[in-house]
Structure formats: C-alpha cells, structure tokens
C-alpha cells in the first residue's frame, strides 16, 4: 500500500530554516558586537598611548625651556662680565695716560702763564688759567698742538679785565688727549 505522509514536512523544513537563520543572525550580531568592542578597545589603547607620548613630550619641552632660560641667564651674565672686563682693560691701558697728561700740561705751560683749573671729560680737556698777555696764550696753544699727548686746542674765552688785581688775562680753552701709541686721539 502506498504510504502517504500526512505530516506537514514543508512547514517543519521552513521552521528549521527559520531557526537556522535566527541562529546565524544572532551569531552575526554577537560577532559584530565583539568586533565593535575589540575595535573600541584598540582605539582607546591607541589614544591612551598617544596621550602618554604627548605628556612625555610636554615634560621634555618644559625641561628644555627651563634649560633655555638658564642659558639666556648665563649669556646675560657673560655679557655683563665681558663688559666689566672691557672696562677694566680700558682702565688698565689708560692708567699711564693720566701721568702723561699731567706731565704734558706741565711741559706745555709757557713762562708768564699759570693754570687755575683743569677738567677732563673722556678725552676732552678743559683748561682755565691766567696769562700775562694774549701772546702767552697763543704760545701755550702752539705747544699743545706740538705735544705728543695733547692736541686740537680751541680757545674759548680770553678776558682782559683784571678782576683779581693781578694784571693777568683770564683764558679758557679746550684740547684733546691723544695717545701716541695709537697715532690718533681716542
């Protein structure tokens, strides 16, 4: 006899395929969620690593900046010390010039003239004095011009009025101190 299967085999097959599809969709959803979690953890790890590198770089930059400030302070200290050394060397080299200046002042003053005041400002010298005549002042200026250590005399004032009752003319002149070793006035 022929057997007839009355069971709904197509429906069972459909239900089985739906279960298999549900399992496949659920498995894919689980795999997708796992991949998202792994990707998120990987990206978070990269961000943390980069933040650590940035913090390290900031710390090193701060250290370098402090060293730069220290170097700038040392450079300014060096510049100050060099300036002081230069002043000291200038004073050392000009020490004998004062002696020569006074020696030349004594040598150049002619008979009949005397100095009452000598002021020096840098290499410029202002001389005040009294002389018996204008010719004595002229002779004094010529001697200054001929001097090794003095030069460029300029007459500022000659007063012929005798305020002190000595009969002498009052004069004021300027001159430049010259260093013969350099060949010109400094």
Attribute tags:
single chain; 186 residues; alpha+beta; Alpha-Beta Plaits; 2 domains; 2 helices
Strands, total number: 5
Helix content class: 55-70%
Shape: rod-shaped
The CATH architecture name of the largest domain reads 2-Layer Sandwich
CATH topology annotation of the largest domain: Alpha-Beta Plaits
CATH class of the largest domain: Alpha Beta
Mean pLDDT, nearest integer? 85
Radius of gyration, rounded? 52 Å
Q: Strand fraction band?
A: 15-25%
Main sheet makeup: 5 strands, antiparallel
Order of helices and strands: HEEHEEE
| Helix/strand class | alpha+beta
Number of helices: 2
When the domains are counted, the total is: 2
First and last CA, distance: 143 Å
Query: Low-confidence runs (pLDDT<50, min 5 residues)?
Result: none
Give the helix/strand layout:
Layout lengths: L8 H100 L4 E9 L2 E8 L2 H13 L3 E10 L9 E11 L4 E2 L1
Antiparallel strand pairs: 1-2, 2-4, 3-4, 4-5
Verbal overview:
The structure is a single chain. With 186 residues, the protein is of the alpha+beta class. It has 2 domains: 22-95; 109-185, 2-Layer Sandwich (Alpha-Beta Plaits). Helix content is 61%, strand content 22%. It is built from 2 helices and 5 strands; from the N terminus they run H-E-E-H-E-E-E. 11% of the residues are buried.
